[in-house]
Each structure stands twice: as C-alpha cells, then as structure tokens.
Amino acid sequence: MEKELLVRKIREGTVIDHIPAGKALTVFKILGLTGEEGFTIAVVMNVESRKLGKKDIVKIEGKFLKPSEVDKIALIAPTATINIVRNYEVVTKRRVEIPDEIINILKCINPNCITNKSNEPVSSVFKVISKRPLKLVCKYCDEIMTERDVIKQLAAT
Ligand code: CTP
Ligand code: ZN
Prior knowledge:
The protein is of the alpha+beta class.
C-alpha cells in the first residue's frame, strides 16, 4: 500500500508532520534554522495527505524541540503533529495545541504597551480569544493581534 517515500526516514530527531500546505518554510524560520547549523533537514511541501488534502513536512535529524518552539509552531500550524524519532521508530507523537495564554513568546504590537517599555521588565501575556482564525488580546493594553500579525512577527525573527 505504501508508496515510495519522497524523503527517507530519519534515524534520530523530529518530524513535524501535517503542517498546513505552504507553511513549512515559516515553521523552518520559527525554529531559527538557516541550514548552516549542520543538521540534516528535509522540507517537504505540498504532498498528499488523507486528512488535509495537501500538507507540508519538516524533518530534522538530531534536533529535539523546546516547549516554546512547539508553542510557536502551534500558532502558525495548528494541525501539526510532532513526532519524536529514536532509532528509526516514532517514540512520541503528539498534536500541537494552542495554549489559552501565550506568555513571553510574542511582542505586543502596541508600542505604548507596558511590555514594550524597556525600563519595565514585564513579560508579554496574550489571551487567546479565537483559535481559528487566530485572535489574541494583550492582557495589559487590550491590543488585538490577528493571525497575520503573529505570522509576520514569528517569521521575522
Ligand atoms: N518518519 C521518519 N523517520 C522515521 C519514522 C517516521 O521520517 N524513522 C516520518 C514518516 O515519514 C511520517 C512521520 O514521520 O511522515 C510520522 O510517521 P508515522 O507515525 O510512522 O506515520 P503515520 O502513521 O502515517 O503518521 P500519522 O498517523 O500521524 O499520519
Ligand atoms: Zn499590549
């Protein structure tokens, strides 16, 4: 039943699967990867998926994600699954999840927000008011951040 794999299986590392089609490069950027770190990486785009129609996949040999990296991925690729591979086997598979509060991951787009005043060390906190489409509100100044704002910011760093 299984057709030939476009990219071989990895031995040890992380497979970020079920990324919405076209979003793989944003995921790649969010992880701060340039390709010069030396990891063996595969970015697969617009392949067939039973669940999504089309999907993207990012495979990174030798890298395991931090919780904050998983949270960032959830914000722009809420359908993604994170597969941890050891000795060629998937040992952990989990769906990413958008948390109810986003703490210290995003910068408020309101320049006058207290979280943007350099002399006030306040962590940013956003409440998630809608997951799809993504809509967040700053806990400090009530500024609304849309999915577009979030993608722009996460892909820029
Ligand atoms: N994978 C990989 N290297 C491995 C094991 C798995 O690159 N050593 C990849 C597979 O190609 C697939 C993903 O990791 O893209 C998840 O693998 P697996 O759980 O075996 O596939 P499915 O059962 O099809 O996953 P799902 O049910 O999440 O769609
Ligand atoms: Zn704010």
